[in-house]
Amino acid sequence: ELCHRIKADLQRHTMAVYDDTAAIGKLYRRQDDIGTPWCVTVDVDSLDDGAVTPSIGPYSEQIVSLLNDALATELVCVLRYKRHHFTARGMASPAIAAEFMVHATEETGHADKIAERIVQLGGEPDFNPVTLLERSHADYDTSSALRDMIRANLVAERVAVEAYRQMIGLIGDKDPTTRRMLETILADEEEHADEMSDLLEKQ
Question: Does residue 31 register a pLDDT over 60?
Fold first, then answer.
């Protein structure tokens, strides 16, 4: 049976328990009460398709909400960096504009990872442009001066860094996979902030 094969595979890496003694909601509440960090749900109605849905029980909805805010933040950062890339002017602008595009590309990668994780958790990534800014932790920016662009990006990166630190603290051991993903993104954002700070000092 698929469930027992999954359990056996997990037991090679960590402690695992198979439980089918109650309805799914009760099972999730039971695991929540005893502090189980994560669960795997097998959809018995879709076994022919091999559908196995990773889940973290009662925390998934809250974590998906956090991730959708992070997704909005990354998308706004992509738009801000791209605008600055295409509108940068001045003697130093070519090199700085190129750096803006590098950051835009990396933020796009973050957004893709976050959206993918949201789907894995059974949620839907929110790409709605109408609510993007109100859900984003960071602001969009229409500065025309190069120094103002750099400063706006530095502020946004520092805001993102703090937001990711708080998300990592909130998730803790509830979802190690999501936490590790966010830790990787946080490291990139800290590097982005350092790079913007260095550029600002040179202006």
Answer: yes
Among 188, 183, 182, 184, which residue's Cα sits nearest to residue 103?
A: 188
Residue 53 in this model has a pLDDT that exceeds 50: no
- The full DSSP string for the chain is -HHHHHHHHHHTTS------SS-HHHHHHHHHHHT---EEEE-GGGGGGT-EEEE-GGGHHHHHHHHHHHHHHHHHHHHHHHHHHHH--STTHHHHHHHHHHHHHHHHHHHHHHHHHHHHTT------GGGHHHH-SSPP----SHHHHHHHHHHHHHHHHHHHHHHHHHHTTS-HHHHHHHHHHHHHHHHHHHHHHHHHHH-
Q: Look up the pTM and report it.
A: 0.72
Is the pLDDT reported for residue 14 higher than 90? no
Residue with more model confidence, 69 or 4: 69
